[in-house]
């Protein structure tokens, strides 16, 4: 039965492992009490003639005393393994906060008389009690034995024991003796000493008569699927259950639950079942009747509230002084509320209300149900309050008939039933006699203007809350919403006045969105985008509503979630921290807000974005630092259909909801480009869309509104192109190397490996700075052919030197320098590798790229006069910098910097994993580019020598056998190639309309396609095809094509893609 009450949770709660240290380490490594001063503890070990006593004296020393027969020699043979410990030898032990605790696996013999089988248990002693569990992952104990119930611990070790060393724990639990066993003698003794020390300390405490705290709720309840009833008690924030009432009086529960980490709900009302959820398992309680279940429900919620101890809402509601006494019996300090009646009641009266139909009274805790308490609901409770409510409900109440705090539940129930269901004492509206429809019509007529107390009188007199004039007009709730009557809306909403909340299909979504709320002052402009003015803003019930001030009950405007399209943080010098909310309201109006506090603005953006987001990604959205967020449509290739998605842009990453309703992440640092299309082949068949291309995938995006598409495009373009001041804030290659580093290395590899004094000679400083500025503006679009190799080399070194943090990280500079001083090479290399392993990925990959490049340069030392020592000397100041960027004039420190780079250069294979295949590919590409530079590559089609270039065919999609050749040089961009191709086509066909064309790469007969971006180098694409020769027999069919974006949709619908000219890569000689 005990096992049935426990569960295996998803995560372990207790530390695993056994402590099996020798006794000489027992007191320092395990858990003997540290407060043994002025005491002597004796733990019985063994039995009969071989019995020994281990004592811990008043100075926490360990002694071995023999109580054996005269055959001392024989007894010595039975000494424990640590027999070298001298009698009375002192063992020093450090202080530790856990010396009075211990945990580990033990065997335990079952049965009250220890007459059942042995089972392996995870045992935990925390100094106050011993608990045991089925295993170290379970968080539901099988039994808890308080220290006050322990009387003695006895190590029952026999000379013949080999792997089952026992100790007995004597208790006052019906004088039961618990029998445990360990696999080792050490562990058994450590357990015995730990428990014995704790028992001794407890007995030293002065005896005090402490009256047990009376439980808030107690009684017998069936738990889980057991037919047996367990005794359950709730005291404060703790629930405990016991095998019997006797165990309760002794104080030895099976398990206890910290209620502040729990939640309770009615699981099956007809079967009178409650479900208590904790972070490690569910508990199910079954009761005899509904009334008992409701009482236990209230007690559990009170315990949870006690544990949470959050009185924020309660204190606000107490602003109305009449709410400090129960509306029904007058009891002081009530903390339950009927949210549809607008009253505050005590726990006992709340129990009666809870038994009513939810349309009569909806009971919620003022201390626990924080999700319910919207700003408007709190204000409604303060505005109505118990005094105003009772002015209606107790209008004709005879003196002496009101319920009293000490009344029985029967008397209390009788009174409350008459008051709210029978309406025996109510001040009913004059139209009451004409029926619900007449009251409903009156409710609609006054909902937009009446005081909330007048509305309350009509409503509780029996009005039909969903009444519509002529069955087609607005409900009272809709009238109040359109009129901006916030408190009227709230009262009607809580009394089922919102027609949408009654739809079962949206109830789950509404319930989740009800948790999203925020309020506070924001600055806001009007429709003409003029002066910012302060407004009290409230986000609740799926809408953002703003008021003139906090006291106003009539709004100046409201924005429903369904009208929100996109929210975006805006850099502005107008006022504070600015954000725009794009909507479909009134000619697609944009609402502009700002806050004086950056954190507040960020919280508003996240909360509004969370409200806008689909339920599947709502929680994820609320955890992102958002630049913009909004709805859009997206596809990942031209052949795919457009799908609805939700975008969240943060820093240099784009999160988008995929077809599985989960977020995918696109690292914009690794995007190769972004291009806007002005054609009408987007999802909406009109307006622009854009495509982002990366090394992983290409995505096509169109927002709900054209202006939002434009704003998204501008924000993402900036993120993709611009460079920051750190390595992490750079456009990156697929290998996480900054594009600026990759481009400079590639250019020097092609043009400068043999350049004399490369990296030692400096280029013209002004041109180096100009090049660096170009890189920082848009690294992808930089063309290096206008610069000398020395200027490119200077830009690379200057870039690395001017980073806010160095490649080797400033905060680790001291560690690297200290390691470099080690004379032991093996030790020094080990430290280097350790520090490299701790580097961020971008830093490590950047360093790897630089090191491999410098080795390439050094291989040409005989021509460029740059040895690895020279190169290390040039690069050390750029790669290693101190915390304060101090120049290292000290010869020893500077030499250590150089030695670090030298060591890494000389031991490349030890520090970096270099893929041989990647090396071969890169070498082939480099050789191909070098040969292109020399003009030794033949054109694949015309079979003629083209100086410094090769001829590459480009096919015009849709034109039969219509292709032209373009020249491809190492520096030629896609934009230049596109212009050349179109000009060649125009010469061949004067009627060709030159507009809306893009250049794209296609593989596998067009099954894979990738748009090429204007700033890309065509040679980077075409030369890589040379490395795919192993695929040719399988028909990889690489092609460059011109596509007219106006006819993309028609091509997508075609049976096959026609008229492509296969590009055959020529042999390189």
TrEMBL record:
<dbReference type="GO" id="GO:0005547">
    <property type="term" value="F:phosphatidylinositol-3,4,5-trisphosphate binding"/>
</dbReference>
<keyword id="KW-0343">GTPase activation</keyword>
<dbReference type="GO" id="GO:0005737">
    <property type="term" value="C:cytoplasm"/>
</dbReference>
<dbReference type="InterPro" id="IPR037278">
    <property type="entry name" value="ARFGAP/RecO"/>
</dbReference>
<feature type="domain" description="PH">
    <location>
        <begin position="99"/>
        <end position="200"/>
    </location>
</feature>
<dbReference type="InterPro" id="IPR011993">
    <property type="entry name" value="PH-like_dom_sf"/>
</dbReference>
<dbReference type="InterPro" id="IPR001164">
    <property type="entry name" value="ArfGAP_dom"/>
</dbReference>
<dbReference type="InterPro" id="IPR038508">
    <property type="entry name" value="ArfGAP_dom_sf"/>
</dbReference>
<feature type="compositionally biased region" description="Low complexity">
    <location>
        <begin position="21"/>
        <end position="36"/>
    </location>
</feature>
<keyword id="KW-0479">Metal-binding</keyword>
<dbReference type="InterPro" id="IPR001849">
    <property type="entry name" value="PH_domain"/>
</dbReference>
<feature type="domain" description="PH">
    <location>
        <begin position="515"/>
        <end position="613"/>
    </location>
</feature>
<feature type="domain" description="PH">
    <location>
        <begin position="214"/>
        <end position="305"/>
    </location>
</feature>
<dbReference type="GO" id="GO:0005096">
    <property type="term" value="F:GTPase activator activity"/>
</dbReference>
<dbReference type="Pfam" id="PF00169">
    <property type="entry name" value="PH"/>
</dbReference>
<dbReference type="GO" id="GO:0007165">
    <property type="term" value="P:signal transduction"/>
</dbReference>
<feature type="region of interest" description="Disordered">
    <location>
        <begin position="1"/>
        <end position="36"/>
    </location>
</feature>
<dbReference type="InterPro" id="IPR008936">
    <property type="entry name" value="Rho_GTPase_activation_prot"/>
</dbReference>
<dbReference type="Pfam" id="PF00620">
    <property type="entry name" value="RhoGAP"/>
</dbReference>
<dbReference type="InterPro" id="IPR052227">
    <property type="entry name" value="Arf-Rho-GAP_ANK-PH_domain"/>
</dbReference>
<feature type="domain" description="Rho-GAP">
    <location>
        <begin position="714"/>
        <end position="912"/>
    </location>
</feature>
<keyword id="KW-0862">Zinc</keyword>
<dbReference type="InterPro" id="IPR000198">
    <property type="entry name" value="RhoGAP_dom"/>
</dbReference>
<keyword id="KW-0863">Zinc-finger</keyword>
<dbReference type="GO" id="GO:0008270">
    <property type="term" value="F:zinc ion binding"/>
</dbReference>
<protein>
    <recommendedName>
        <fullName>Arf-GAP with Rho-GAP domain, ANK repeat and PH domain-containing protein 1</fullName>
    </recommendedName>
</protein>
<feature type="domain" description="Arf-GAP">
    <location>
        <begin position="311"/>
        <end position="438"/>
    </location>
</feature>
<dbReference type="Pfam" id="PF01412">
    <property type="entry name" value="ArfGap"/>
</dbReference>
């Amino acid at each position: 039965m005990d096992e049935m009450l426990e569960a295996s949770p998803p995560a372990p709660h207790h530390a695993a492992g056994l402590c099996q240290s020798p006794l000489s380490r027992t007191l320092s490594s395990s858990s003997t009490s540290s407060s043994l001063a002025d005491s002597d503890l004796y733990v019985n070990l063994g039995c009969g003639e071989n019995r020994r006593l281990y004592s811990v004296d008043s100075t926490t020393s360990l002694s071995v005393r023999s109580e054996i027969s005269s055959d001392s020699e024989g007894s010595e043979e039975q000494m424990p393994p640590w027999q070298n410990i001298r009698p009375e030898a002192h063992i020093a032990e450090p202080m530790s906060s856990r010396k009075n605790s211990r945990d580990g696996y033990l065997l335990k013999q079952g049965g009250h008389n220890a007459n059942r089988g042995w089972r392996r248990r995870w045992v935990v002693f925390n100094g106050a009690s011993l608990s045991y569990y089925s295993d170290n992952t379970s968080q539901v104990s099988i039994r808890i034995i308080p220290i006050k119930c322990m009387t003695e611990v006895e190590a029952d070790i026999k000379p013949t024991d080999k792997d089952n060393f026992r100790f007995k724990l004597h208790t006052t639990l019906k004088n039961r003796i618990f029998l445990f066993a360990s696999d080792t003698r050490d562990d058994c003794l450590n357990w015995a000493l730990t428990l014995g020390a704790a028992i001794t300390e407890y007995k030293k405490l002065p005896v005090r008569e402490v009256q047990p705290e009376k439980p808030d709720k107690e009684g017998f309840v069936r738990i889980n699927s057991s037919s047996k009833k367990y005794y359950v008690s709730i005291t404060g924030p703790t629930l405990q259950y016991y095998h019997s009432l006797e165990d309760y009086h002794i104080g030895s529960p099976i398990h206890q639950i910290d209620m502040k980490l729990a939640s309770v709900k009615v699981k099956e009302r007809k079967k009178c079942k409650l479900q208590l959820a904790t972070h490690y398992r569910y508990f199910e309680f079954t009761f005899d009747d509904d009334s008992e279940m409701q009482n236990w429900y209230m007690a559990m919620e009170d315990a949870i509230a006690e544990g949470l101890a959050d009185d924020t809402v309660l204190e606000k509601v107490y602003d109305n002084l009449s709410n400090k006494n129960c509306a029904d019996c007058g009891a002081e300090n009530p903390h339950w509320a009927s949210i549809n009646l607008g009253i505050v009641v005590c726990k006992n009266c709340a129990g009666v209300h809870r038994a009513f139909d939810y349309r009569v009274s909806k009971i919620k805790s003022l201390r626990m149900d924080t999700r319910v308490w919207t700003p408007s609901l709190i204000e409604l409770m303060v505005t109505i309050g118990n005094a105003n409510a009772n002015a209606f409900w107790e209008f004709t109440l005879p003196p002496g008939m009101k319920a009293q705090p000490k009344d029985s539940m029967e008397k209390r129930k009788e009174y409350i039933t008459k008051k709210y269901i029978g309406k025996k004492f109510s001040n009913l509206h004059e139209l009451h006699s004409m029926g619900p429809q007449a009251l409903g019509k009156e409710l609609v007529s006054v909902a937009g203007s009446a005081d909330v107390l007048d509305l309350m009188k009509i409503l509780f007199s029996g009005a039909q809350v969903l009444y519509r004039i002529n069955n087609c007009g607005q409900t009272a709730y809709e009238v109040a919403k359109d009129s901006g009557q916030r408190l009227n809306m709230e009262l009607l909403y809580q009394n089922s006045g919102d027609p949408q909340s009654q739809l079962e299909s949206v109830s789950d979504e509404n319930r989740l969105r009800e948790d999203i709320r925020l309020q506070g002052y924001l600055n806001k402009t009007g429709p003409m985008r003029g002066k910012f003015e302060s407004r009290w803003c409230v986000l609740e019930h799926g809408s953002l509503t703003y008021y003139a001030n906090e006291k106003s009950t009539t709004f100046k405007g409201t924005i429903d979630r369904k009208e929100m399209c996109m929210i975006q943080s805006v850099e502005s010098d107008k006022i504070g921290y600015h954000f725009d909310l794009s909507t479909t309201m009134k000619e697609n109006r944009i609402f502009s807000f700002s806050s004086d506090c950056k954190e507040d603005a960020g919280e508003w953006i996240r909360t509004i974005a969370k409200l806008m987001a689909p339920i599947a990604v709502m929680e994820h959205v609320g955890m992102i630092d958002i630049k913009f967020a909004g709805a859009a449509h997206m596809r990942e290739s031209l052949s795919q259909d457009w799908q609805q998605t939700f975008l969240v842009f943060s820093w240099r990453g784009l999160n988008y909801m995929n077809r599985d309703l989960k977020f995918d992440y696109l690292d914009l640092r690794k995007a190769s480009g972004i291009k806007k299309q002005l054609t009408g082949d987007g999802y909406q068949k009109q307006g622009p869309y854009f495509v982002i291309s990366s090394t992983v995938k290409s995505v096509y995006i169109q927002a709900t509104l054209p202006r939002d598409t434009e704003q998204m495009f501008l924000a993402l373009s900036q993120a993709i192109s611009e460079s920051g001041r750190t390595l992490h804030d750079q456009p990156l290659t697929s290998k996480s190397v900054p594009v600026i580093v990759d481009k400079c290395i590639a250019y020097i590899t092609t043009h400068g490996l043999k350049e004399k004094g490369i990296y030692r000679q400096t280029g013209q400083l002004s041109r180096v700075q100009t090049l660096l500025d170009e890189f920082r503006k848009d690294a992808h679009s930089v063309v290096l052919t206008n610069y000398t190799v020395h200027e490119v080399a200077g830009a690379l070194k200057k870039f690395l030197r001017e980073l806010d943090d160095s490649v080797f990280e400033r905060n680790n500079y001291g560690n690297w320098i200290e390691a470099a001083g080690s004379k032991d090479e093996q030790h020094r290399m080990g430290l280097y590798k350790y520090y490299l392993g701790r580097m961020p990925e971008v830093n490590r990959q950047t360093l790897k790229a630089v090191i491999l490049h410098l080795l390439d340069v050094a291989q040409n030392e005989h021509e460029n006069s740059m040895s690895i020592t020279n190169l290390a000397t040039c690069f050390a100041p750029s790669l290693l910098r101190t915390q304060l960027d101090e120049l290292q004039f000290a010869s020893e420190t500077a030499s250590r910097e150089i030695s670090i780079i030298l060591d890494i250069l000389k031991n490349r294979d030890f520090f970096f994993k270099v893929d041989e295949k990647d090396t071969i590919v890169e070498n082939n590409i480099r050789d191909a580019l070098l040969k292109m530079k020399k003009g030794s590559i033949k054109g694949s089609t015309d079979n003629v020598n083209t100086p410094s270039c090769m001829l590459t065919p480009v096919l015009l999609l849709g034109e039969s056998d219509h292709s032209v050749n373009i020249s491809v040089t190492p520096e030629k961009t896609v934009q230049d190639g596109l212009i050349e191709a179109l000009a060649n086509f125009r010469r061949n066909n004067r009627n060709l309309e030159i507009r809306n064309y893009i250049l794209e790469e296609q593989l596998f007969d067009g099954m894979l396609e990738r748009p090429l971006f204007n700033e890309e180098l065509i040679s980077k694409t075409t030369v890589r095809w040379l490395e795919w020769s192993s695929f040719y027999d399988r028909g990889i069919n690489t092609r460059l094509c011109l596509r007219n974006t106006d006819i993309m949709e028609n091509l997508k619908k075609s049976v096959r893609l026609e008229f492509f000219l296969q590009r055959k890569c020529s042999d390189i000689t």
